[in-house]
Design goal:
The two termini are about 35 Å apart. About 45% of the residues lie in helices and about 15% in strands. The chain is of the alpha+beta class and about 260 residues long. It has 9 helices and 7 strands, in the order αααββααββαααβββα. It has a 5-stranded antiparallel beta sheet with strand order 4-3-7-6-5, with helices on both faces. α1 packs across α3, α5 runs antiparallel to α9 and α6 crosses α8. It folds into 2 domains: about 70 residues, Winged helix-like DNA-binding domain superfamily/Winged helix DNA-binding domain (Arc Repressor Mutant, subunit A), CATH 1.10.10.10; about 170 residues, GAF domain (Beta-Lactamase, 2-Layer Sandwich), CATH 3.30.450. GO terms for molecular function: DNA binding; DNA-binding transcription factor activity.
Amino acid sequence: MEQAEKGQVKSLVKALELLDILSNQQAPMTLRELYQVSGYPKSTIYALLSTLRAYGCIRQESDGRYYLGMKLFQWGCSVSASWDIIRLARPYLERLARDTGSTALLSRVEGSSITVIDQCVSGAGIRVASEMGSHVSLYATSQGKLLLASLSDSAVRRLIPEGKLQAFTPHTLTDLPALLADLERIRTQGYAIENGEYKIGLRSVSAPVYSRENDIAYIVSAVGLFRRVESDEFDLVIRQTCDDARALSLQNGGGGCAEKPCLPR
């Protein structure tokens, strides 16, 4: 596991890492399993879990396994309630899903991480839902490629070294020069497209929502089982996604996007 940096409380770092392990596992774990993953002494893990359990962050059932506690859910609800962007974005997501028959997503950008924070699923056709709170691939999804396009090529190379591009489908761009060429197209057009690169048959478009500092703070996406990206149907999805992202940027106080949701070069 990662070592605590200077100025950090080691026991707190270990406790947070145990919570992170349980979250990533998405299933209850025994003390032995936590020991095997974390590498911490069992006595240390037991003491940390006992403290977390006292605060409702961990619960232990009769089978001895440890689960994430309801206190974390309550904290998560408090965090989401503080995001005014969700209230602002909801009408746009609902309209985007209704008019395009897609699943409309709102994702939050933090550094090089993208997290889905809200979605609206169309009631028509096959439903495509995304797991709330999930992180998305940086190079195989439209959201991830949009974020990469806001960086320089050298920054992308540092973030995703050559040979580190895993193939999710036969359409995934696993060649770094090909990915960089795609990012250049995204910078020019101001939006990103996913064409079956993460999941076969799944296509999406993403457009940026800017902060007051003109950084990409959020991303609006339309995801669905569209037949082709070269079609009038998909052109309509692109246009509405970009329009909604531009309008949400202005409501969010974002500057530099009044004409189109362009990306910084």
